[in-house]
Amino acid sequence: MVDSARAQPYVSFTDPLKARRNFARACKLSRALLRGAPDPVGVEVVDTSFPVPGADVGLRVYRPAAAPTPPGVLVYFHGGAFVAGDLDSEHHRCLGFAAAGVAVVSVDYRRPPEHPFPVPGEDCYAAVEWVAGAAAGLGFAPERIAVGGSSAGATLAAAVALMARDRGGPELALQVLLYPALDDRLVSGSMRRYPETSSWKVADSALMWRHYLGDSPEAATSEYAVPARRADFTGVAPAYVLAAEVDALRDEAVDYAVGLSRDGVPVELHHVAGAFHGFDAAVPTAGVSARSLASQAAALRHALLR
């Protein structure tokens, strides 16, 4: 896995436009590892959109074709340091979840710096509300909805779980947080221990937060901008949290899981030894990636299928 990580092109987030191109190239290289492997059978994929004030937000709907009963649905937010990524970035992951029997709606939220906080999170929350309203018509179970994402997408998933709790929104069965970025202070032990790896650097975290938070006074204090600012997690959705050992963001994931558990939220914390940030997306064919993806799918099945 270490050699595979070194073979991946490093994506700098200094220039968001270049980052988008390079991130797309890196995702394409990861998908090339799957060349020759057939897509899961029995999954219908449809692109659509829904309106928000001033824009339409793209969605990709993954429907398990042979589900015996209406499946629960995961609303998924891709990674990419907020500024990069799209519906293609984690297509393979979403296909795998759908092949396991879970419906997925992937969200193409608007990105900074053109659309800094609170726009991406509000797009994601609006998508959850849209899914809750449209689920029955789509053949999904509206009472079984989860949110999830990787890296910055996990940040958004955590924020949406907080919003749903505070706003009396859709009751969420699970929040899936895969190597999340949750704290803009960048002072954790793993930040000091792994300041520069082949897949993520502390400088990336600083740039990511700068692009996302922008100059908004609200962003400087909002728990929805930086979920680690939350003092009380009582009533927030149960969580599946994944932390990669060789990742500057590792301790943020662990600390968040501890905070959730402290306040009575059921938490399943997975610490993947030897793994780096984004390992299961970058090297999906590795054994550790396959095991992790299977674990994620199993947690979703447990939460969303009856």
Question: Quick recap of the structure?
Answer:
The protein is of the alpha/beta class and 306 residues long. 39% of the residues lie in helices and 20% in strands. It is globular, with a radius of gyration of 18 Å.
By CATH, the architecture is named: 3-Layer(aba) Sandwich
CATH class: Alpha Beta
Residue-averaged pLDDT, rounded? 93
The low-confidence runs, each spanning 5 or more residues with pLDDT under 50, are none
Question: Order of helices and strands, N to C?
Answer: HHEEEHEHEHEHHEHEHH
Question: What percent strand?
Answer: 15-25%
Kindly report the CATH topology.
Rossmann fold
Descriptive overview:
By secondary structure, this protein is α/β, with parallel strands linked by helices. The chain has one domain: Rossmann fold. The protein has helices at 2-7, 16-32, 91-99, 119-138, 152-167, 189-193, 202-213, 250-262, 279-282, 287-304; strands at 43-52, 55-64, 73-77, 103-108, 145-150, 172-178, 239-246, 267-276. Strand 3 (73-77), helix 3 (91-99) and strand 4 (103-108) form a beta-alpha-beta unit. The model has no long low-confidence stretch (mean pLDDT 93). This is Esterase. Residues 74-279 form the Alpha/beta hydrolase fold-3 domain. GO terms for molecular function: hydrolase activity. Keywords: Hydrolase.
Which terms summarize this structure?
306 residues; alpha/beta; Rossmann fold; 10 helices; 39% helix; 20% strand; globular
Outline the fold blueprint:
Blueprint lengths: L1 H6 L8 H17 L10 E10 L2 E10 L8 E5 L13 H9 L3 E6 L10 H20 L6 E6 L1 H16 L4 E7 L10 H5 L8 H12 L25 E8 L3 H13 L4 E10 L2 H4 L4 H18 L2
